[in-house]
Amino acid sequence: MAEKDKGPDFAKGIASAELAIGAMMRGTVGEAPVILVRSEAGLRAFSAKCTHLGAMLDTGLLAHGEIRCPWHHARFSADTGEAVAAPAFAPLSCYRVEERDGQIVVGEKISAQPPQLERRLPERIVILGAGAAGFACAHELAKRGAGAHVTLIDQERDAPYDRTFCSKQYLAGKKDRPGVAMAEAEFLRESGVTLRSGEQVLSIDAEAKTLSLKSGTLPYDALVIATGAAPKRADTSGFERENVYVLRSLADADAIIAQAREGRTALVVGSSFIGLEAAASLRARKVEVHVVAPGDIPLRKVLGADVGRMVRALHEENGVRFHQGNVHSYDGRTAVLEDGIRLDVDFVVLGLGVAPRVDLASAAGLELASDEEGGGIRVDSNLRTSAPGIFAAGDVANLPARAGQGRQRIEHWVHAQRQGQHVARVLLGHSEPFEDVPFFWSAHFGTSLRYVGHAEEIAEAEMDGSTSDKNFALRLTDNRGGQAIVTCKRDKAALEAEADWER
């Protein structure tokens, strides 16, 4: 941090008049960056960096008694510094602060009281899936002192890890493999959570409340299904070959990295977020990249035509070549497109979307959502399924629409984490419905997009700013009452829209 950006020395004090109600200010205590916050809870001082990925919180928003991160919308209590909403899990450090005689002075760090366990709790809680929703659910329970009640099961031996790194930093070579692991996994173990990675669940007996595992039978009092989604594969001739990959897991990323050597050529099939993030990451490794997709404007359905064209231009400026249409066949070396174009490529990455993993739930007799509703397991506003004692969260869960009519299943990492946290709070006795506004981010060659809300099919688009300047806030609405905002370099606008829609 440059000297001029450090702000005032809070240990020496500032005038009370410099910090209005509802404001945040960054300064230092010693060499540590610290924020002063004056909210409804009073005057507080906390460490200034978000505990997720280090954004400076004073550039975020103070709303509804929470400090909100500008990058990935993590939330912290403005009273205690507790991380109250993912993707951050660790709390902010607290500092002693005094105000008298028109001066505010910040002192040494103080110990915050950990959240207290609420005693209304099932004895045996089993969570299937250690991805975004499952891990967040286990962490929330462990944080409240209930870790000994929890068994967290995942069929991947690498779990738990941050899946968002697979298509971004890890695939691009900007983060090593150990850095992909969830930093709080050791906290789970220390808190008494039983973590069973590499374990396969064969079936659920909803009446007997037992799971059949390869290793035996496991009873439960409450079950959380957080099995996520599986990447789709096309039935195109040749796509069953060993050098055709999907990108969902850490193992998938490992396999693609093994192929991604300088001088090689890759074909990305599908211009989804995962497909385009994979394209950008492969270009960072100096792989030649072709993208083939049916439409000429990527992400148009989600982001609108203007932003979609901007994303395509970003990729083309960085050497990605686009082809409109579909792949007819692939012989392991040459991909033939439907229009007859032949592309010599060393490997293929499929970015064709995902489908919820509902096999276990379906076999157990749980009610599923229709394809028209978005698929997945039907849950109520507290994420309860049709079977007593069973919840579903994350990509597999189909909820009542927060705004508008009908139901929806949303495939966002942060939204899944917050669903997991909500299930934990329901297990602890809370009864408020899950009403978080969906949020995700996507990065392309150093340009980051934030998306808040949910619009199914865009009916209206209102642009503030310019995609040519890569500085804008685009408001979207659909015909079902859904609304969203897409921003680039307008982090505060995204946070403000989120806070406003929460009302």
From TrEMBL:
Keywords: 2Fe-2S, FAD, Flavoprotein, Iron, Iron-sulfur, Metal-binding, Oxidoreductase. One of its GO terms (molecular function) is metal ion binding. One of its GO terms (cellular component) is cytoplasm. The keyword Metal-binding applies. Coiled coil: none annotated. Its cofactor is FAD. Residues 11-106 form the Rieske domain. Pfam families: Pyr_redox_2 (PF07992), Rieske (PF00355). The keyword Oxidoreductase applies. It comes from the Bacteria. PANTHER family: APOPTOSIS-INDUCING FACTOR 1 (PTHR43557), RIESKE DOMAIN-CONTAINING PROTEIN-RELATED (PTHR43557:SF2). This is Rieske domain-containing protein. It comes from Aureimonas ureilytica.
